[in-house]
Design goal:
Helix content is about 35%, strand content about 25%. By secondary structure, it is an alpha/beta fold.
Length: about 170
Amino acid sequence: MVNQLANLLIEHRAIEFGSFRLASGAQSNYYIDVKSAVTHPALLAAIAEAIAEKFEFDVIAGVAVGGVPLAVAVSLESSRPFAIIRSTEKSHGKKDAVIGEVKGRSVLLVEDVTTSGGSALYGVEALRASGARIDRVVTVVDREQGAAEMLEKYGIRLVPLVRVNELLQA
């Protein structure tokens, strides 16, 4: 089966080839740039629709920066609230790690790209510390480099919309 989201990601140049250092610290000969690609409304809308139709949740959440536009788009598509997980602590104003009401609610975390799963785990832990119920993370692209296995150790199932091999084989 052809993955239409994979085709849209390729069309919007979400994959680049070269030499790159990833957030995980690993070197790679390709880079998945969902953040830039989702600045195109057609791609952002398609991702939001896929998530809103496929998953049940009370609140959709995203870690700043990459997860925020995805969470907002899914919120608009599903008419459900969203939450933002700060990427760093604030030293002023409200210092909450999570912006939005998540306590006691079923939360779905959305990530743009997963590699090792570190960012997703950070988001899961922040949500759990805020009282959220969370057992799944949806990622637009899974680089298939250990995130699913790592998150499974914390009771989290990683669900990719696109696997990197679908982008590399296209």
